[in-house]
Amino acid sequence: MFFERPESGECAILVHIDLADEADQESPRELEELALSAGADPVAFLTGSRHQPSPKFFLGSGKLDELRQLVQLHQAEVVIFNHALSPGQERNIEREMQCRVLDRTGLILDIFAQRARTHEGKLQVELAQLEHMSTRLIRGWTHLERQKGGIGLRGPGETQLETDRRLLRARIKSIHSRLSRVRRQRDQSRRARKRAEIPTLSLVGYTNAGKSTLFNRITSSEVYAADQLFATLDPTLRRIDVADVGPAILADTVGFIRHLPHKLVESFRATLQETVDATLLLHVIDCHDDERQGNIEQVEEVLSEIGAGEIPVLQIYNKLDLFGDQAARIDRNDQGEPIRVWVSAVTGEGLELMAQAISERLADDLFQDTLCLQPHEGQFRAQLYAQGAVVNEQVDEQGQMQLDVRLQRKDMLQLMSRLGLDPKRFISVEVN
């Protein structure tokens, strides 16, 4: 029902109205990108301004007539508003235009329905669609809106509309139950990673910032990546190795957008949990986008909403290849900590610097010193080599081994505990 979409684009009229009482306006350009991502064929763009929307049609009478003429001229199949419409407004405009009407939330839901690939992703989209649809059911059943009376016309005591609402509630309850099982499975995986003390890196950012392209570059994967909004919907996890840290999990997640519908945030709570439980967030930013700063603020707002506002963040300024005079670099704060890396996921420029910055941010408890081992402590030496911790080694005339070592403090302590060594003998130095 929800995942069958026409192969060809549908002829669409786009509508954007600047409202005087709306501080944070939607972007008309973004509406066009959303429509194209959904497979629509925008043939006209109706713009205007109002102090506040009309309760009945959202538009004023003049703009409504203008919209009707555009629909008839282009024989449009759908009208897409860059705003949230009430069910009544949607119904009234459809009656006037004699074609389908979608608001911004409905359009984003449609894109999500097309992008969902996994069973979990489809369940999450269907849940959001059902909850959105539950307030709009009346549109399809106006002829069965009321019970009929009289001989031979008495119904079963329940209108078709009430039956549909009851079936919807049952389906929503069933999906919630199935998603709860998925959430428990994800929680088990996360707890196992925490027990093994494996850090998680989560790629977050505005939609179409290049997260999946960057993910593929880092992990040599083939995750679907395209120059369109919401190309990624289902989360993907891969194991990577981080210098001075060891194994880590990298997660590619769904992109954010201005005024991301609350129903979607709720439905994708299980997916977004990968972000909430991350050790470090890699905030991927399209540095060439004119709306760069606004997009950064929107992502930070969504992160705060889902409970990830306090997690450490490393900004990844992507699409460096679109600048002619910018070189890959690491920007640091006053304490010398990496806060921003300029890279190109397409060309691979700056990825080594990004790996260095990630290593510095994660290896905040790094043991780095020279150990002096006696000849009979060869097993300790062998284990240090096995951990990849030995940077350099020298042996003096007495057979003592001078090892320059870099290793996470916790891993060093665990290794010494296994070998029955006294940590105080070796770790009496300051940890970087």
How does this structure look, described?
40% of the residues lie in helices and 21% in strands. Residues 1-8 and 139-154 have low confidence and may be disordered. With 432 residues, the protein is an alpha/beta fold. Helix 10 links the parallel strand 8 (280-286) and strand 9. Strands 6-7-5-8-9-11-10 form a seven-stranded mixed beta sheet, sandwiched between helices. Strands 2-1-3-4 form a four-stranded parallel beta sheet, with helices on both faces. It has a three-stranded antiparallel beta sheet with strand order 12-14-13.
Which stretches of 5+ consecutive residues score pLDDT under 50?
1-8, 139-154
What is the helix tally? Answer: 14
Helix content: 25-40%
In angstroms, what separates the terminal alpha carbons? Answer: 57 Å
Major beta sheet, strand line-up: 6-7-5-8-9-11-10
Round the Cα radius of gyration to an integer and report it: 28 Å
- The secondary structure category is alpha/beta
H/E element sequence? EHEHEHEHHHEHEEHHEHEEEHEHEEHH
**Overall strand count:** 14
The shape, in one word, is elongated
The main sheet comes to: 7 strands, mixed
β-sheet strand percentage: 15-25%
- Return the average pLDDT rounded to an integer: 77
Question: How would you describe this structure in keywords?
Answer:
14 helices, disordered N terminus, single chain, alpha/beta, elongated, seven-stranded mixed beta sheet, 432 residues, four-stranded parallel beta sheet, 14 strands
Question: How would the blueprint of this fold be written?
Answer:
Elements: E1 11-19, H1 28-37, E2 41-50, H2 61-74, E3 78-81, H3 87-97, E4 100-102, H4 104-115, H5 119-133, H6 160-195, E5 200-205, H7 211-219, E6 236-242, E7 246-252, H8 262-267, H9 269-276, E8 280-286, H10 292-305, E9 313-318, E10 329-332, E11 338-342, H11 351-362, E12 366-373, H12 378-386, E13 390-395, E14 401-408, H13 409-419, H14 423-426
Parallel strand pairs: 1-2, 1-3, 3-4, 5-7, 5-8, 8-9, 9-11
Antiparallel strand pairs: 6-7, 10-11, 12-14, 13-14
Helix pairs in contact: 1-4, 4-5, 5-6
